[in-house]
Amino acid sequence: MVRQAVRDIRTAPTPPPADPPADPAVAALRAVVDDLAASTHAIGELMLEVAPAYLSDIEAADVLALLCEQIGEPLEHGLATRRYAMSGDRRALHGTVL
């Protein structure tokens, strides 16, 4: 229920560029980054189920610390994926996941 509400409210992730790059290596790398962003978004939605969007990062950190420890993810990455799921903006992942 929460996941569906988040999907209904949040901004969709940015679509990939319309024009594929001419270099096949760049196109392949872009596809890998897009796949990573998609899976990160799904993890962020899980983080939102555990620590809803109305919680601040500080409050969410208290709730997510145990989950992140159990799945082997640094807490800062968990918080970044949560912010990415809320905003759909890949800049939320800068310096942590991407």
Provide an overview of this structure.
The chain has 98 residues and is mainly alpha-helical. The protein has helices spanning 2-9, 24-50, 57-71, 75-87. Helix 2 (24-50) packs across helix 4 and helix 3 (57-71) packs across helix 4 (75-87). It is elongated. It starts with a helix and ends in an 11-residue tail after the last helix.
Total strands: the figure is 0
Radius of gyration: 14 Å
User: Structural class per helix/strand content?
Assistant: mainly alpha
Strand content: under 5%
Major beta-sheet overview: none
Give a short summary of the structure.
By secondary structure, the protein is an all-alpha fold. Helix content is 64%, strand content 0%.
What characteristics describe this protein?
mainly alpha, 98 residues
